[in-house]
Amino acid sequence: MKLSFSAEDEAFRAEISGWMADHLTGPFARLKNRGGPGDEHAFFEERRAWERHMGKAGWIGVGWPTSAGGRGAPLSHQVIFYEEYARAGGPGRVGHIGEGLAGPTIVAFGSEDQKRRFLPGILSGDDLWCQGYSEPNAGSDLANVRTRARLVGDRWVIDGQKVWTSLAHVSDWCFVIARTEDGSSGHRGLSYLLVPMNQKGITVRPIQQMTGTSEFNEVFFDGAETAAENIVGKPGEGWKVAMGTLAFERGASTLGQQMAFRNQLDEIIAIAKANGRAKDPVMRQRLAEAWIGLQIMRANALRMLSQAGNPELPREAYVSKLYWATWHRDLGKLAMDVLGPEADVFPGEPGTYELTALQQLFLFTRSDTIYAGTNEIQRNIIAERALGMPREARA
């Protein structure tokens, strides 16, 4: 596992940190540290303009191969990019699903025509994507998907429902897992379709969260259509492609997420020192444990990334979601305990429902151990896939 960086790496760090310092200014200055989890509604159009600004400068697709229009940056540079972006207070990325999931999936599994058609719009920051995986009865259990698609002439016709679809209300495209083989069940008979969102056969309904915002959505497909060629891989290969997409979630961007966590922890520690709670031995121990937990998280991520290219998912990857979700949820509670009575005070005019950044942190992190696979499901995955234990009994 590589824990240090070369002189070349540090030169790249200076390049990206300098670019952020020069460009996250003027009309973009107010975007610093905005638009993250629980704050997705903030300055959306300005953040979309920032996405295009990054695209023009070539900062989208840093790790994509040059043949796909990316920079072809080595893994160490990718880690540095995401860390420095978060360190500089870069705003929440409106195009992260396209850059981090849809794009790499098309690069790995898509046809040459699909690469030519879809990748440029992601790299320029013009096209936004969402993920059509979870359903009311297939959240953590993706193999239970019931959304169906049938090939009619030169079009796939889709009927079904997806839920917890982040950014569906602003997305141009959605990659959808649908059942395309009658009578199939489980992992078999699924296909991976690229579906335009702006059509009459799709209805998006926002789901309001505890933060008062509605990043998540329900998406209903009622005869929605996409061209026959907008299938990634062959019919019935949807599970393989979908698992490839999920593997990209464990990429270098996890280090950027952890740097954002570090920013949050630093703010909490500063408040604890200012209001005197850091003098309490129990609170001081909790702050220290949070700091130690974050170092463990980073070391495990680097260990996981050091095995990039291994066809078998390393065990370190299996524990990642369970670990960071639980740690971050606990950080939200720690923030409220550090704030004390101030945690219950809402700023702004009487009657308004506004939240501070740490209040947003607490409320949003209640969902961390639920979305993208609940903690219970994560433990099953670790037991069955990483440790080879017997499968849980199914009713």
Automatic annotation (TrEMBL):
Gene3D superfamilies: Acyl-CoA dehydrogenase/oxidase, N-terminal domain, Butyryl-CoA Dehydrogenase, subunit A, domain 2, Butyryl-CoA Dehydrogenase, subunit A, domain 3
Domain called Acyl-CoA oxidase/dehydrogenase middle: residue spans: 130-222
Molecular function (Gene Ontology), one example: flavin adenine dinucleotide binding
Residue ranges of every copy of the Acyl-CoA dehydrogenase/oxidase N-terminal domain listed in the record: 7-126
Keyword Isomerase found: no
Keyword entries, A-Z: FAD, Flavoprotein, Oxidoreductase
InterPro entries per UniProt: Acyl-CoA_Oxase/DH_mid-dom, Acyl-CoA_Oxase/DH_mid-dom_sf, AcylCo_DH-like_C, AcylCo_DH/oxidase_C, AcylCoA_DH/ox_N, AcylCoA_DH/ox_N_sf, AcylCoA_DH/oxidase_NM_dom_sf, Mycobact_Acyl-CoA_DH
Membrane-spanning ranges: none
GO cellular component, one term: plasma membrane
Cofactor(s) in the UniProt record: FAD
Pfam families: Acyl-CoA_dh_1, Acyl-CoA_dh_M, Acyl-CoA_dh_N
Domain Acyl-CoA dehydrogenase/oxidase C-terminal, first and last residues per copy: 236-386
Protein family: Belongs to the acyl-CoA dehydrogenase family.
Descriptive protein name: Acyl-CoA dehydrogenase
Lineage start: Bacteria, Pseudomonadati, Pseudomonadota, Alphaproteobacteria, Rhodospirillales
